[in-house]
UniProtKB/TrEMBL annotation:
Belongs to the ABC transporter superfamily. PANTHER family: ABC TRANSPORTER ATP-BINDING COMPONENT, HEAVY METAL TRANSPORTER. It is found in: Cell membrane. This is ABC transporter ATP-binding protein. Probably part of an ABC transporter complex. Responsible for energy coupling to the transport system. It comes from Streptococcus pneumoniae. It is a peripheral membrane protein. It comes from the Bacteria.
Amino acid sequence: IIVMDEPSSNLDIKSISVLAKMLKILKEKGISIIVAEHRIYYLMDIVDRVFLIDKGKLKKTYTRSEFLKLDKNELNALSLRDKELSKLKVPYLKEGGEYQIKNL
């Protein structure tokens, strides 16, 4: 059994992708993995079950299909981030081959 606490913290997108691939390989080898995490988008293809733990107590258990049905508001109520990687939308102007960020 491998236990990981917030393994994606302080990692960039590429590193999180590598982490997800490593976890998938470990799972395919039959190794049990327990991950405590708020950033969950990279785990959606890997998880079998999701356990909600609050202040050291197990509050709820979800099957993978039950968890995938939760919407963004339900996830936020559980202090979890979105199941999909959010894309940053920044308003910009393109002038003369240069991009300028506006209205930030």
